[in-house]
Design goal:
Length: 1203
Amino acid sequence: TMANKANKDGVNFQQHLFYYQIGLCHQHKDREYSILYEGADSIYGAFDDVILKEEGPTPGLLFFQAKQVLDSNKVISLDDVFDMKKGIVKYMESYGSYLGNHQCQKDGTPNEAIYWTSQAIHESTTKRFLQPCQDTRLPLQSVGPAIKKYRIEDWKTLLLFDIAWKWAKICNPKAESKQSAEYICNAVANALAYEILEISEDDKVKFREGFLLEEPQYLASVSDKARSFREQFRLACQLQQRKSEFDIKSFKNISYEAKLFGLKASDARADSVRFEHKNLDEGKLEQFFHAFRYYTEVPKGEEMLKILNSLFNGDFEEKLFENHLIPKQTSSKKVQTDQYINRLHMNSLIEMIKLKSLYIAPRISGVTFSEESSVELRKCLEKFTDQAKGDRLLEIYAPYVLEWTAYRVEKELHKFCTCIVIKEKDLAMLFEKLSQILETHLENELSVIVVLNVDASNMEETNKLLKKVKRIIHISSNSLPGSNYQDELLEQHVEMDFDQFSHINLILDDRLLPNTTIIHEEEFKSIQKRAELYQIQQIDVKSDLYMPEERFYITRTLTDDHNREITNEKLKHESQQRVTVIVDTAGQGKTIELLRIARFLNEGDGICLFFRARTIADKLRRDTPESCMSLNGWDDFIKLLQIAPSSDVVRNIVVQCLAQNEQLYVVVDGLDEIVETYQDYIITVIRKLIASKPLTVIIAARTELKPKLKAAFNHADFYHLDQFAYQAYFEELWLNNSAEPATDTVRQNVEFFLKHFDSILKRAGCKSFLEVPQLCKIMGTIYKERIKRENFLLYNNYEIGSIYDTFIACQFGNLICQSFDSQLETHVLATELIKNYFDENHEKLAYDIECSTQFGRQQYHKLALFGLVRLNPTIGDRSKSGVEFIHRTVLEYFLVRYFLTHDVEASHFVQFMKRYFCVSRVNVADKFIDFFLNDETLLCKATRRKIKRFLEQDPQQLATYVRIALNNATFNTLRLLLREAPSVAVQSLEFRFGGIQDSKKENVSNEINLKRLGERQLLLLLGILQRIDSSNALILNLILEHDLNEEDIIEVAIRKPFPEVFDKIMLLFADIQKQDTVAYTKYITSRLSRYVRTLVIHCYVSSEQLMVDKLRKICIEQIEADVIRRVLTTFDLLDEVLSCIETVPKGKRFIEEARCDILKKILSFLEMYLKEDDLRSRKVQHAAKVATLQHESLRTLLEHWLE
């Protein structure tokens, strides 16, 4: 056995060797092993410390002898090696003893016999005979400092040197003790002495002269061993006497006591004698030295403990290892034991250690409990664990903080037994783990399991554990009828470090805020409040801020009304108690810029709270409308934040933390996205907010809300986004996208797209669309595949409803259709089913969001796969089911489709009509309604009935709706209005091309001014009027203007000019003439002077020339000459011509040829209808005026006519 057993360091060193070898073997799952601590002396001798048997890929048997010394500087010297009691001979004899034991027949010879030591090898002496060696076993993942391994390769030289070393010591005059020498191989020593030493009669010996002088004749006469021994002896003397060189000739004529050599007479030459020691012949010695290893510089103490902990991946617990791996000695005399440890045993022990380290009570910080607090608890636990019989389950109720009770229960239990503390969620896993642990380990190491907060439905799992362990303690934060003990605490039992809780982490929108909230002890005197404060580990505060999708983002800037750039830095330093408003059109990118501004404001010391207007509206909607008056200031505004955990204590901490900041910003986005009533409520809330606290509010809304916001906030600054660089966007999207490198075809198509698209949009009246980021994204989707094709073509319908409809179809096609084969019927059916799901669920989601209906959070999450919906980045129940459309306009598209095609709740339908149907603002939803009404078969019968009922409820509003429909150019909507409105209301409409009559301005007017309509709009209006039931009356109302001071439609058509409208009206006049010639003639003649005057002033193009001819033809063919003559008598046409012929209206240019042509036709008209006397007097009357004309051609023409 190991020396120095009485020293605990030695015992630890041996045990650590044992644990270390277990750890190395246990790392390899394919290697089975069994290992014994302290085998029998009678079998293993000095190698009895650790016996290791390995199986698997490299089976083997290893013996270990552990040796450590207290002096860390002591090294293994040659004296240690050659010591006949403690040196290598001891291990040779142990090896020989084992070879003769029956255990050797059973287990075989050892592959390695290892001398395991903390010592190093003496560099200049011992190391000469050792060679570094590698492990013969499979590589093992060791840790810590490398253990140096050596073996004795030339063992015969070493045994010769054993003799030389001991003779050199005899010859050293400075040697302290002169004892009779002992040799590992006595026979070889005796034979060498016979050849090298001379023995005199007086029991003296001396070295032969030939040996010392290295005489050739002598060397030739002795054995090879004797010749090689001479160098070994010289080296031994040199090392003994610590000289750099040594000449053994100095021993000439010196005699030594024969007894010091300890030799026996021999007459054999050394070469004839074999190496042997006791029962070890040369063959067995060869086996021994092949197996023998020095493992040196082995770490010990704390260093080895660290290595062991790492080797067992942190699952090393020395006390537990000693209890279960080191056999208990029954007496002082060591006896052999068969307590081998194997992988199964270690797995169980390691699993137990993992359990004990993993399942512990939550650690308590910042709170201390008085000793008095645990007196009753300790009594209860002692009584429960000491009982031999009785209930094995103890129920404890923790009324304040579960962790407090668990921690104190564990602390008390550890004073007299072992335990683990486990949560409910780990119960099933624990039962499985306990099945992997040996019963002996469970019995000794797991007296009690403490289970936390198990639901009554899971108590069955708890009861199953009683089959594995003796006792279970269940601690619950809910009072149970069967509770055995209630852990009552008083204020004096709990001391808190309030300074620690003054620095609770407060996370606002994923940003850690500096929180130095002062926690006042007097506010937390009750045990209940202290418990609540303790349980606040971190406060998470969420506004509506999120990280938007910014791929292909094009930098934008804010500008004011004077086109001056407004930087984020300027916004940041706006004076307090101020409102800033960002207004722009739908889809312009207000939200993404507002999010970027909010993140910028949050980067410094400021705090920015970002809210959707819908969030505030939802808060108001949940209460009564009047409750908006309760949001009287900053503290109540905090209620809009999502705060977790949620309690008054937490909310007060948040309020204090935010109040400390002097730079507060509140950002409100999408004010236009909520109904008008709640817009007014929110404006009221904001006004109260800025009145209660110095802060800056930034609002984003569509342009149509600018007047309302200006009226509400007198001193607000209004900004808008600069022009969107659509060319840069498309180049980034299609040419610089690294995910899909551009081909030559794509480059050519993009160049064509950018070159021609602007002009196409301009012709279509949609140029501004491409200056809107949202519509650019839509175009990117529409052209995603087309831009890659040869023979690239542009779409030609850029009406906004058509654009969105194409966008939705392309989004679906790009994602879905390319995955299916249109030639396979099953694939076609699958595509149709997915399309139905796509349409129905997007429409229903839009309806649910808009109408704030209740629906499940998970119901629409899969829609995000289609790319039109994203998971809502905020948490909690805000914004309904956690999903939202990628843009408000996309929601409105599906919302309109749902309302028009489904029978929805009446109240929601009315709200929809008031908000989107013929509203007096530029509304994208209004365009979507008109687009879908192009195909009225989509309109369900119930929706048509509701529209009819809606219009019947307030028929006086029809004129307003018609005006808005005309203003918004939504003619499909206009057709529906005139078709479904009450006939009385329709017939009362009055179409005019002038202002509202003064007499009607104070009343609700049915007059509709058409003055601003273009030619196409007038033609569409005429077409609609012709197809409704009251068409005749309405058409007459439109074309006949009885106020001679106002233009009628013919005059407008001449002035604009609108040749197609003029022709259309001429056809309608033809019908009127057939029905009532007198009325027709009267109307034409009454307005003839206005027509002629308009023709003279505005006739500059060929279409107007045609109008002149058509009017002349009407006069000639359809009106009697006397009637015309009477008109010309009262109306001085020549004077009108002379006054206007050289007038150039704004926006037109003087065309001499056209002026001359119309002048000739008017003069001819005068000659045709005026009598000769009347004509002559007119010429004389206006001769002087002719002379004043500036254009010679006109003057000459008229002078010739006068003559």
